[in-house]
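Below is how a single chain appears once it has passed through the pipeline. First comes the sequence as given, then the structure the pipeline wrote out for it. We keep one example in the README because the format questions we get most often are answered faster by looking than by reading.
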Amino acid sequence: MTGRCRGGGLESPPTNKLHMSTPGERKGKPGTVAPGRTGLQESCRLPKRKRTRMAICTYNARTLASEAAIEDLMMQAKKIKYD
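Resulting structure:
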């Protein structure tokens, strides 16, 4: 195997950001990701901008969100300022 990421790289995404665990709470809850994390393996970190886009795409593709919720999310994404 090459030096690339193994195991697919993503965990099951949470169904709602309010249900994400914090680093101290993490006790094996399946499908939860600590705040500020996208579920990527530590050895394969993406740049901040790509992580944000991946999180948006995951939200958009894996939840049953209304069109208004998706539009709101896209407006928030446009307002993100990068250093």
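Residues 45-83 form one domain.

See the next section for the split statistics.
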